[in-house]
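Entry 12.
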Amino acid sequence: SGGVCVAALTENEELFFVRQYRYPFKRELLELPAGKLEKGEDPLEAGTRELREECGVIAERVVPMGTIYPTVAYCSEIIYLFAAAGLNYTSQHLDEGEFLSVEKIPLKSAVDMVMAGEISDAKTVALVLKIAKLREEGKL
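Predicted 3D structure (tokens):
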């Protein structure tokens, strides 16, 4: 049913990331908050839910940033991308069996990490670079 990914940008130009162990790769990956869509769930609602559950963040503004097709050769999955701002903090509400840590990383450092191959999750790479480009152009 697809998924969502949210780039929550603080007033200090930092992005919220989650570090989570991914079994297929047998290591922790650094990713923007994300999750699966429930059947029939609105992507915007799913994005705000995932941001709140994983990072304990509620955003005043959430802006659609397009979609990506992460595996076009063998899957029809669509991931909906969002930017979030006007952040307020609450507590995490992780799913049962979900273990992750939250980190804030300056946007410029996140771009450097993408370019150095330190961040390799496709949805995160795409959204970090989109956010950086729009910030550079003064459009976000």
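Annotation: Helices lie at 43-55, 107-115, 122-136. The radius of gyration is 14 Å.
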